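Hey,
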Amino acid sequence: MAGAYGADLPKVPEWLNKGDNAWQLTAATLVGLQSMPGLVILYASIVKKKWAVNSAFMALYAFAAVLLCWVLLCYKMAFGDELLPFWGRGGPAFDQGYLKDRATIPSTVKKFGNGTIEREAVTPLFPMATLVYFQFTFAAITTILVAGSVLGRMNIKAWMAFVPLWLIFSYTVGAYSIWGGGFLYHWGVIDYSGGYVIHLSSGVAGFVAAYWVGPRPQADRERFPPNNVLLMLAGAGLLWMGWSGFNGGAPYAANLTSSIAVLNTNLSAATSLLVWTTLDVIFFGKPSVIGAIQGMVTGLAGVTPGAGLIQTWAAIIIGIFSGSVPWASMMILHKKSTLLQQVDDTLAVFYTHAVAGILGGTMTGLFAHPDLCKLSLPNPTNGAFYGGNGGKQLLKQWAGAAFIAVWNLVSTTLILLVIKMFIPLRMAEEELGIGDDAAHGEEAYALWGDGEKFDATRHATQMQQFERDQEAAHPSYVHGARGVTIVL
């Protein structure tokens, strides 16, 4: 305490805004919590019991691997000096002199034809170290979302190779093109906080990965119940609450835009959840917890491209469409499309993120308010609803979505084909029948059952063997007091 209030305090640079820095670090931590432990818990609990450890570990590994790759090379590929119009020049970001300087995104500077500066680069009022960590949390969660499409069968060694390669050759391209000062940024494509860079990218990449890895065993595709619904809700809750940092931190300041974004984010999520749940009740006769979570996610993903740029009534409209369009694509279009049925997207990442991301980008092209755009965008613009150049903005949104989708389709395919030359993408069939114990030598629960109802014709022998083992280990074992059998 004496040091904090002493006469000779450490020198604080004039450009540092302590409030902005504190909020940005808080927002980064909230986004980090979405992955660790949010998606770790969600993935572990939403899958069949035999895949709980493997699913959680895929998320855990990706979070750690992305951080190391981020500071060694990838941050500057996404937010550094220009190498190509869609890619930054990679390099390490761990020198203390670099990290203590004021944050800047150099490629966001705009120059006239004669070389003079038309618009200065983006320079938030906090250190570069804060920006590096904040953007890492976005890269990490994007990679973890891809894993949701291949849970329950991808070879863990192939996944360990996939994470750094996909980060380098796919994620950094989208991030630089739209956020880091690439050609889509200067052209004026709006992606406020990741509808394209994160959700469209992960949805398309996950779908492509699911195609190349192949489907789960038929038994798992037909019956894949969550092993712990309450933990599933806990993970989803961390994901929802963390989104306040996700969209609230996008302006790089604790300002008016961040406040509007946080309110719009939560309102869209709530609306979408209620719409999805209502549709489940109308068509299936009862609400579904998994459905409610999917509706929550689509509402969050749908509002992300324009969270700080739209009025609150527009956030409700986005929530309505985010809860209905992805629902229809999953429940109706999926069942009518042979291709969609052939691709086994475990957690429906394509529908909840790619479809929602494109929908959100389109709605931003319609409802971006001119006054709110002036607060945070480098170029004055507005959505088509407000006239002016809004029609052109909508077309730009679709063009930006097309570039991100195509790049992820091609890059993810090439990455997986290269990995396949050295490591099988899919676990062996005998390992798929076992699950976590085959992949890691560990199991999530020391309990009987695998999300299945007890069937005496199939499981009685197992129970009898269990009783014999208990009697051998405990001679005083009493048959009438075997305790409670928990069926997961």
